[in-house]
């Protein structure tokens, strides 16, 4: 029966939105999925061929053509759970026509790993501040998980963080299946900040790879990176957490080492001498770490946490310092 279904709107047209639509549509007939994306050509292609033409295009998506739309208000009004999977830098623009009333009573799930610029907010804070969404109606999807491996149904683990255990359990059960295992957490702040920071360190890892540094150096870089994450999340939201959990350390490792990582790929091009513009142009995908490091630089003016790796990435991407020089200077600070 249509009225008994869990109605989920997935907002975004990139790889992660595509993978999340796959997970939820794979999870049985009890879910109704509404998929919003801004690109009408992609929608027309999807309706005809059941494939997203620009992202994970080899994947067949089993969604009712009538449930794919470029009308955001329609998508949101038709759902009880809204999953946001748009790069953070574009979120505010994408939601411009949406009001607090449109989101009232709904569970809002962020699958985004980035800061909303201007106010430099993590997504949970942004939803609370801009749309008065109560924190117990917000959940965050995180953990080491690349869309490309979900598409191949390779076993993956997601962490669902929410201040409401009912909400985290609801979203965990929506996403769990044969190839997705879920755990829940109440650490929204730590989960979000760690997920954003690891993108910056994956950019650093890519830069070093592009410059010719080897695995020995990478291991030291990433050991220092997890300490940098711990210092920062402990400063902004000091609670008892184990930074070795997969939502923190695991996400850093997969992003820093995986061939699928957008952030590492972007950094690698920077290390090889591409300009930021040409690296972005080559990718057709978004490296959140590029935007995040600028926001972090501003946020950290208040906290003054010692973050030499993030500082080096900022200097390379925003102060035009040569990667060769900056990473050589950084290498003196690592141990
Ligand atoms: N791809 C992955 O494996 C994972 C991604 N995420 C997060 O999901 C979020 C979405 O990223 P992906 O799906 O990977 O993106 P993507 O890199 O696959 O695709 C880029 C997306 O950005 C959109 N876009 C590009 N320029 C835009 C603009 N000017 N205005 C509005 N939208 C624009 C494109 O339409 C497309 O939907 C990010 O925060 C990312 O960190 C989180 C976990 C895994
Ligand atoms: O968050 C991710 C994996 O957990 C995706 O990282 P990239 O955006 O670098 O591909």
From TrEMBL:
Pathway: Membrane lipid metabolism; glycerophospholipid metabolism. One of its GO terms (molecular function) is NAD binding. Belongs to the NAD-dependent glycerol-3-phosphate dehydrogenase family. Sn-glycerol 3-phosphate binds at residues 113, 143, 198, 251, 261-263. NAD(+) binds at residues 90, 147, 262. Residues 8-166 form the Glycerol-3-phosphate dehydrogenase NAD-dependent N-terminal domain. NADPH binds at residues 15-16, 38, 55, 113, 147, 262, 286, 288. SUPFAM superfamilies: 6-phosphogluconate dehydrogenase C-terminal domain-like, NAD(P)-binding Rossmann-fold domains. This is Glycerol-3-phosphate dehydrogenase [NAD(P)+]. GO terms for biological process: carbohydrate metabolic process; glycerol-3-phosphate biosynthetic process; glycerol-3-phosphate catabolic process; glycerophospholipid metabolic process; phospholipid biosynthetic process. Its EC number is 1.1.1.94. It catalyses: sn-glycerol 3-phosphate + NAD(+) = dihydroxyacetone phosphate + NADH + H(+); sn-glycerol 3-phosphate + NADP(+) = dihydroxyacetone phosphate + NADPH + H(+). It is found in: Cytoplasm. Substrate binds at residues 113, 262-263. Keywords: Cytoplasm, Lipid biosynthesis, Lipid metabolism, NAD, NADP, Nucleotide-binding, Oxidoreductase, Phospholipid biosynthesis, Phospholipid metabolism. Catalyzes the reduction of the glycolytic intermediate dihydroxyacetone phosphate (DHAP) to sn-glycerol 3-phosphate (G3P), the key precursor for phospholipid synthesis.
């Amino acid at each position: 029966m249509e009225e008994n279904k869990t109605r989920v709107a997935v907002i975004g047209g990139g790889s992660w939105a595509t993978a999340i639509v796959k997970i939820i549509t794979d999870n049985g007939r009890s879910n109704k999925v509404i998929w919003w994306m801004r690109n009408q050509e992609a929608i027309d292609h999807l309706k005809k061929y059941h494939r997203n033409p620009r992202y994970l295009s080899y994947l067949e998506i089993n969604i009712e053509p009538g449930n794919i739309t470029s009308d955001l208000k329609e998508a949101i009004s038709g759902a009880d759970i809204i999953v946001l999977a748009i790069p953070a830098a574009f979120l505010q623009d994408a939601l411009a026509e949406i009001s607090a009333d449109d989101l009232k009573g709904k569970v809002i799930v962020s699958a985004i790993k980035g800061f909303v610029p201007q106010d430099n907010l993590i997504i949970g804070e942004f939803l609370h501040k801009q749309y008065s969404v109560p924190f117990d109606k917000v959940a965050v999807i995180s953990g080491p998980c690349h869309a490309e491996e979900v598409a191949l149904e390779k076993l993956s683990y997601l962490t669902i963080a929410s201040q409401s255990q009912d909400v985290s359990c609801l979203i965990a059960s929506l996403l769990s299946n044969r190839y997705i295992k879920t755990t829940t957490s109440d650490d929204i702040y730590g989960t979000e900040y760690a997920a954003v920071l690891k993108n910056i360190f994956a950019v650093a890892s890519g830069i070093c790879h592009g410059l010719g540094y080897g695995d020995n150096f990478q291991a030291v870089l990433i050991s220092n990176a997890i300490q940098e994450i711990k210092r920062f999340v402990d400063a902004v939201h000091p609670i008892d957490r184990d930074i070795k959990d997969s939502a923190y350390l695991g996400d850093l490792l997969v992003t820093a080492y995986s061939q699928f990582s957008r952030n590492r790929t972007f950094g690698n091009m920077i290390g090889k001498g591409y300009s930021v513009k040409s690296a972005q142009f080559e990718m057709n995908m978004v490296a959140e770490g590029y935007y995040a490091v600028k926001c972090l630089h501003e946020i950290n003016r208040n906290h003054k946490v010692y973050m030499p790796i993030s500082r080096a990435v900022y200097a390379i991407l925003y102060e035009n310092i040569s990667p060769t020089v900056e990473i050589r200077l950084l290498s003196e600070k690592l141990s």
